[in-house]
Design a protein that fits this description.
It is globular, with a radius of gyration of 19 Å. The longest helix is centred in the first third of the chain and has 18 residues, at about 5-20. The protein folds into 2 domains: about 5-120, Zincin-like, CATH 3.30.2010.10; about 130-189. A hairpin with a 2-residue loop joins β8 (about 175-180) and β9. It is built from 5 helices and 10 strands, in the order αβββαααβββαββββ. It has helices spanning about 5-20, 65-80, 90-105, 115-120, 155, and strands spanning about 30-35, 45-50, 55-60, 130, 135, 145, 165-170, 175-180, 180, 185-189. α1 crosses α2 (about 65-80). It is an alpha+beta fold. The protein has a 4-stranded antiparallel sheet with strand order 6-5-7-10, with no helix packed on it. A 3-stranded mixed sheet has the order 1-3-2, with helices on one face. It has a 3-stranded antiparallel sheet with strand order 4-8-9, with no helix packed on it.
């Protein structure tokens, strides 16, 4: 059985499990599922093609993990096909809570690659990330790093902790992370 066939089989199992708790995700909806061979970081995504048509993509590397982790990812993306669940807001959380309680899943907003690789008895190796920008909140000094920043970032986004405006600093030189540890950076405004 190839990876796409395995994915389709697990997808059908998830649909049947949802039906068993009276959640008909396919009611008036067409949902396609396929493997994404390009994505290296995210587990999966759900794209709304039209009002009643969705395309779920599961990253190829996820298909090497345990079946319960793959099904957890599929369930996460299936929730995004439900009305008002295109984000990780209140409706998404309610569906996730019901599915977690009734079917024993562990659906959350994000995954933990290191944990999932460990559970699947696979070696976790992640390449260091080279960041180009440091983002700092003007009010609370909360900061984080990014490889890319949109041109209108400071106008469009506010700090999630305090609502303050962001300053974006271009990094000259090297900043690299390996398992979330930052080594060296030189900043210019």
């Amino acid at each position: 059985m190839n990876k796409q066939e395995k994915l389709e089989k697990l997808f059908e199992q998830c649909i049947e499990e949802l039906k068993s708790i009276n959640i008909d995700v396919q009611k008036n909806r067409i949902i396609e599922i396929k493997i994404n061979t390009r994505s290296k970081k995210r587990y999966g995504c759900c794209k709304k093609i039209s009002k009643d048509r969705f395309k779920i993509e599961i990253s190829e590397w996820v298909m090497d993990l345990n079946e319960d982790i793959i099904k957890n990812t599929i369930m996460h993306e299936l929730i995004h096909c439900m009305p008002r669940c295109n984000n990780h807001g209140e409706y998404f959380k309610n569906y996730a809570k019901v599915i977690n309680e009734k079917l024993g899943y562990n659906i959350s907003r994000t995954g933990n690659k290191e944990r999932d690789f460990s559970i699947s008895n696979l070696e976790f190796t992640e390449k260091p990330i080279n960041f180009n920008y440091k983002i700092v909140c003007e009010d609370c000094n909360y900061n984080f790093f990014r490889q890319r920043v949109r041109r209108n970032f400071t106008r469009k986004y506010r700090c999630g902790k305090c609502g303050g405006r962001f300053n974006v600093f271009k990094i000259r030189g090297l900043i690299s992370t390996n398992h979330r540890k930052i080594f060296l950076y030189i900043i210019e405004k």
